[in-house]
Amino acid sequence: MNELGLPPTRQLPAEVRERALHTVLSGMDSPQRRRLAPLLTTAAAVVAAVTVTTMVAVSAPGPGSPGAEAPGLEQLASGPPVMSGDPLTDNALTRCADAVVARNRTADYPPTSDWRTTEVLLTSPGGDTAIAINDRFACFVGMSNVYVSSTRGRQAGPVAIARLTPAIVVVLNPERHELDIVPRAAFIDPGGAPDAPVQLMMLGSASAPTSNLWLTVPGSYDGLMPDPGPIGVVVEDHRPMPTIGATTTTAKPPGPR
Amino acid sequence: MTTREGLAGVNAPPVDDHELWALAQRGDRDAFTVLYHRHADAVWNHAYRLTASPTTAEDVLAATFLTAWRRRANVRFVAESARPWLLAVAGNEARTEGRSRARFRRLTHRVGPAPDVADHADSVVTSLDDRRRLHRVLAAIAELPATQREAVALCMVAELSQTDAAQALGIPEATLRSRISRARARLRTLLPEEVR
């Protein structure tokens, strides 16, 4: 027993040692990814329940149609984004770039050829994916819609608040300040580092206001969260999702636990 | 690659953490694997004590070394060993895990109960008394301010020296001692049986 009465240290079980190392080695080349499929399933359900009337359809063929495998990258004025090699992430990034091009909003974002996935914020078993792009903005790719947040949002001291989907708000925190938001019960925070450059907040419902949330960035901002404003870009996109691969940064190899 | 290959697998002479880290910074996964095996026990034990869950501790162990790998280009540790820094990273990862799991519990409370799945690893790792004690200690530590929590995690949970802990946290030793002192006083009121 030590000073706190904690039990003595134990030897790390060999199978745990090997399993964790396997996870590390298999995750070394992947972008950071979080394990919050259940949360995203709920968030995706909230998003799907909302009818967005300002959508613009991407002229993409359906699965099985001629040309279905071509994601439309030739449309991109500045070229395709930087691929990571992860099919799910790359599919999402491509569709996010397509969405911005389809809405003719390329002037509001960095050149698409510079886009790269800097973090996978959420994934769901159905393939819904939220990614951070260039640590500057976020994109959510669902079964039928693609949402891209603005890169600026509404300023709150050194951070900015932007709407990603009707029910998801992102905090853009390029200088990586540690921040806090209360009351936590008002939203579902998928977790992650409190100083991450792009953080998701899943509101409890699509119409939930953010004006009752208190944002604190120590030494910089201490006040009500500003309204995140409108979603940056929304398009309807029914292209099929790739199947989620078995390798995530935290996936366990097969075998008994 | 099998997990014990690399520098350790070819009977290379022991090298210190700085040398291994320098190799890892150049992308040498074998060197990083040696570091992993050298510190995995300590990181896992620390994670277990901070989370009271063997399953979560395993996740924290993997997340800690993944974070280390991803940040290797920007990290230069000043202690003799990488362990203090790794334990500090593990503390952050454990906190993140705890937050995520707490929110998941709140969410599942809203949407209804999940199937009751037993954590098989729990049964083989520790006794019920140990876990009860651990939960009690963790609840008390959670009452402390963040800066004191970090100090307590490294000095009183991981049992690092104050010098190593101060270096890992990037603060003067005097500051660390002050935080520990205040934390100890508070913990005495919260855990009168454990902290004397």
UniProtKB/TrEMBL annotation, chain A:
Lineage, top-rank taxon, reads Bacteria
Keywords (A to Z) from UniProt? Membrane, Transmembrane, Transmembrane helix
Q: Where is the composition biased (Low complexity)?
A: 62-72
Disordered as annotated region, ranges: 62-89
Q: Which residues cross the membrane?
A: 36-58
Q: What is this protein called?
A: Uncharacterized protein
Q: Which organism is it from?
A: Pseudonocardia aurantiaca
UniProtKB/TrEMBL annotation, chain B:
Q: Which UniProt keywords apply?
A: Sigma factor, Transcription, Transcription regulation
- In this chain the RNA polymerase sigma-70 region domain maps to 35-103
Give residue ranges for domain RNA polymerase sigma factor 70 region 4 type: 135-187
Superkingdom is Bacteria
Q: Which family does it belong to?
A: Belongs to the sigma-70 factor family. ECF subfamily.
Q: Which PANTHER family match?
A: RNA POLYMERASE ECF-TYPE SIGMA FACTO, RNA POLYMERASE SIGMA FACTOR RFAY-RELATED
The protein in question is named: RNA polymerase sigma factor
Q: Which organism is it from?
A: Pseudonocardia aurantiaca
Taxonomically, what lineage is the organism? Bacteria, Bacillati, Actinomycetota, Actinomycetes, Pseudonocardiales
